[in-house]
Design goal:
Blueprint: E1 9-12, E2 16-19, H1 29-55, E3 57-62, E4 73-78, E5 86-90, H2 104-110, H3 112-115, H4 118-126, E6 130-133, E7 140-144, E8 151-156, H5 163-174, E9 183-186
Parallel strand pairs: 5-6, 5-9
Antiparallel strand pairs: 1-2, 3-4, 4-6, 7-8
């Protein structure tokens, strides 16, 4: 089972995110920015971990290469997706989007069942769909200076340089591996 571990928030009943009271002196803008970055990183990690633990989703590497020098990303898939007859492809594309999170504000205010894809995945699985979750807003690997948090370098990911290229890569290279598929739905 995935655990949510964020200093600024507590996950209650696997659903509601509750802001922890601040301790010590008045927080600075820098403290608030750092807290938000920590929250987003943990929310992203937690939702992806839940997709893997609750639904047995596995990562598929893009690009499919053996070269350790290539920058990579992943899409998530249910374990039996290559034998699927019904396939749900989930794509979300907005600036700063996080895989599996439709709205970080809804996650904070109304819970994970309103702001994440977890209930959609549960419903699709119950309806007999296998699932692919794309990651179109991950065009490259960014290296940040640990002190200033400024970008030191950007390495593009082949097959994921833009949301459109990412979707085409999946359409041309991954979906055809599901040879039994008879029905594809998009979300």
């Amino acid at each position: 089972m995935a655990e949510f571990t964020c200093p600024g928030y507590t996950l209650v009943d696997g659903e509601r995110l509750v802001k922890n009271p601040l301790r010590g002196s008045m927080p600075t803008n820098e403290d608030e920015v750092r807290e938000e970055e920590e929250f987003l990183g943990e929310l992203s990690r937690y939702v992806e971990a839940r997709l893997q633990s609750d639904f047995g989703m596995i990562p598929i590497t893009i690009p499919d290469t053996d070269s350790p020098a290539d920058a990579r990303t992943t899409v998530l898939a249910t374990a039996n997706w290559t034998n699927a007859q019904k396939l749900l492809v989930i794509m979300q594309n907005s600036s700063g989007s996080i895989l599996g999170v439709f709205s970080r504000t809804l996650c904070k205010k109304e819970g994970l069942s309103k702001g994440s894809i977890l209930p959609y995945v549960a419903r699709a699985v119950s309806e007999g769909y296998d699932i692919l979750i794309l990651r179109p807003d991950h065009p490259g690997v960014v290296e940040l200076d640990p002190e200033t948090r400024r970008v030191i370098s950007k390495t593009p990911i082949r097959g994921s340089e833009s949301p459109e290229i990412h979707a085409l890569y999946v359409l041309e290279n991954i979906i055809p591996q599901a040879e039994n598929v008879r029905h594809i739905a998009l979300l």
